[in-house]
Amino acid sequence: MSFLRRRSATPAGPEFDVLAMDPGDWPGNLGAGLLPAPDGSCQGVFLRYDLFGGRGPAMIIGNLPEGSPARDVAEGEVPFEVAQLLVALENEEEVTVTGAEDMPVMQGDNLLIVRRLKLSESRISCVQFDRSDNVLVTIAAWDRPITDDLYALLKPLPAELFQQG
Length: 165
Prior knowledge:
- By secondary structure, this protein is mainly β.
- The chain contains two helices and nine strands, in the order E-E-E-E-H-E-E-E-E-H-E.
- The strands form two sheets. It has a seven-stranded antiparallel sheet. Strands 1-9 form a two-stranded antiparallel ribbon.
- Strand 3 and strand 4 form a beta hairpin.
């Protein structure tokens, strides 16, 4: 895994807050990946939460800033995070977006407008929302619904989590 922000000679991590669940709140394994741009800047962060004992992730949460090429998907294509979930599960089935529904959700004192994506693979749940800093958060879960309780667990992770050491 490469860490990409070029503040110094050694890339350090993303230049935006990563909204996700604290690893201490999750009973499984956590993996993180950064999407590099050619100039070394960070084009996104995704976190993979594994509850299945190494047999694949239960959830992937992506944070993609404005301008990230991973945000550009054609009509009917799945978000980057869903594609990563399928790759991690070694599932080669073609999955498409069949619809979307906007719904209001409270996260603490903030009102989020969450897009719930409907996918051709019913075992995948996927939601997206835009943060006030124009970072798109996408949550993709395998074989478990995404409920409103999950949004209460989301918070910015400390930058040290992404520092190369």
